[in-house]
Amino acid sequence: xxxxxxxxxxxxxxxxxxxxxxxxxxxxxxxxxxxxxxxxxxxxxxxxxxxxxxxxxxxxxxxxxxxxxxxxxxxxxxxxxxxxxxxxxxxxxxxxxxxxxxxxxxxxxxxxxxxxxxxxxxxxxxxxxxxxxxxxxxxxxxxxxxxxxxxxxxxxxxxxxxxxxxxxxxxxxxxxxxxxxxxxxxxxxxxxxxxxxxxxxxxxxxxxxxxxxxxxxxxxxxxxxxxxxxxxxxxxxxxxxxxxxxxxxxxxxxxxxxxxxxxxxxxxxxxxxxxxxxxxxxxxxxxxxxxxxxxxxxxxxxxxxxxxxxxxxxxxxxxxxxxxxxxxxxxxxxxxxxxxxxxxxxxxxxxxxxxxxxxxxxxxxxxxxxxxxxxxxxxxxxxxxxxxxxxxxxxxxxxxxxxxxxxxxxxxxxxxxxxxxxxxxxxxxxxxxxxxxxxxxxxxxxxxxxxxxxxxxxxxxxxxxxxxxxxxxxxxxxxxxxxxxxxxxxxxxxxxxxxxxxxxxxxxxxxxxxxxxxxxxxxxxxxxxxxxxxxxxxxxxxxxxxxxxxxxxxxxxxxxxx
Length: 562
Hints:
six-stranded antiparallel beta sheet, mainly beta, 29 strands, disordered N terminus
């Protein structure tokens, strides 16, 4: 078969915090730390942690010219009047554009999925891993595509880049402002240094150092100065307050194999099909040796009748880390259409949902349809064997006597095997939800999941691997942006559950429903069970289950206060 491997390399060329770099499923990035603690403010001059956002401009990857108008994003819902400037990108300001006070309402978008903190503070430090995961995700690309009118496929084709600028929302002389780092530096110059004099930590440290380039790009230099010390206006305007996301598409690769994408740390089966125009019998059997990740797996004594075919396989365990392998097969006495192919080993644990916040909102949310991945719930295969049919004839040598000669032949038959995969799943309110009633619960609390997958097979263990992977997707992420890889126990009767949630106070095996999820609505989790392997390929099954949302966690809080 022909499979297209498309690799979106997301290079986030910016520095954010001092946490270690992790690799995203969607790509890779260069990121490092910036900013430090807050100074003292006053009742008329202050910045509150979490009052931040980004301005994103789509630019041509080659020329750097703008392909869209800038769009501002923030997690916050601001009730007060915001003083702001006409939306311009850092490139426009460097080209000589001036600050222009903008009348009317400040226009910005609230992401359906909360952004991580952009500006660091003692109480809400910026997290590099979370920021990288967010802006290199398919979700962020789709968010920008929707906001700018550029199609998603065009955006990630390699033709465009995203220029990301941090925005701070702060009070200066009793008035609430929205400014990018570059705008704040220009405004500080225009005010004779008054802005930085009253908000030094914000204007000359945490806002400009929130994002800066590690590698020079689009005419902007890499920042090589301190990531925690105060900077000046000229440094900000020329070099700071900018990050760049790039997408590059790899060339197509033609591959012939039953399946070319495997998961890490998993038992799998790789198979090829042998053909022959002449009989291959036990006197002169065929053999195949698979060469996989430095090891060899040999299958001997293969027999095939004239004009027949035989599937031949190797059962092996994938590496524990993502990689790309070239798998080859050496075939003796038979033919195979393809004896070399590439296999991607991927890690599905690298894209869990972000930390849910009580301030998250999604007023335009509509419940998406439940997806359905391709599923194959049954398989069959056969193995040829040969047995000798004797046909004894007397060979007469005249006066010298004679002897018996066996002029028999090889007959062929098959051992036939089948496998089938069935599954069930159940989600329920977590045991710690105080007001759950059966399958009904308030939004904002956690749910637990138990899924079962049964492989029924009549073959030896070398012929199969039971279901080992289950991935759950959630409606608030449109069943695609983020997912949870479930833990697996058991063999032919496998059980899957959520892994401990890093944001759970008690390390519960839960997923938290969003506080904003619509009332009187079914909250449905979709789970894809896969990695049940046979010589005929992988078996998989789609599952889903629901709880009913009736009210929100706020209802419990307010009732307790009353």
